[in-house]
Amino acid sequence: MLVQRLIVIVMLALSAPLVLAECPDWLVEEFNRLRSTETVNLCEAFAGKPLLIVNTASFCGYTGQFTGLEALHRSYGPRGLVVIGVPSNDFRQEAASQDKTAEVCFVDYEVTFTMTAPQRVRGTDAHPLFRELARRSGSEPQWNFNKYLVDQGTGEVRHFSSQVRPGDDSLKGAIESLL
């Protein structure tokens, strides 16, 4: 019995570095979840999975894209895609409170994918993750609902502008190529 427990402990200890090895260093980021005291560490929670990271806003002409992002989450999530919404008021179209942002996301659009607390997404004050996404893709967000598709295996980041809707064939094709 003791030997079996030791084997399990050793196996768990050896597997932990492997999980972290599947996640690029620049994704070792922890975010507060939207309107929650819980946090999510991108590497611990989603190591090795393709990520679709989107800067969102509650009161934007593109806010309806939440519906399409949820459809991507439901369609591709079981195959490994992780959709992460990051609210931002950089373009002055986000709610003043996390409660209102959460209402728009979770009540109005029935979002079930991961939503973080609001962050800065552009310029020198941008969250380090968004600075790195911009560097790797060659494009920082020009408006709300920019999409960054991250291949954790290669570190490649593909940028899709706000005009590229979640159901667009170019985005879906890029997602499928990573699954």
UniProtKB/TrEMBL annotation:
This protein is called: Glutathione peroxidase
Is the keyword Glycoprotein in the record?
A: no
The UniProt entry, under InterPro entries, shows: Glutathione_peroxidase, GPX_AS, Thioredoxin-like_sf
| GO terms of biological process kind | cellular response to oxidative stress
Q: Which domain of life is it from?
A: Bacteria
Source organism (scientific name): Marinobacter profundi
One GO MF term attached to the UniProt entry: peroxidase activity
Q: Which family does it belong to?
A: Belongs to the glutathione peroxidase family.
Q: Return the Gene3D superfamilies for the record.
A: Glutaredoxin
Give the matching Pfam families.
GSHPx (PF00255)
Q: Which residues form the active site?
A: 60
Entry keyword set: Oxidoreductase, Peroxidase
Q: Does the keyword Oxidoreductase apply?
A: yes
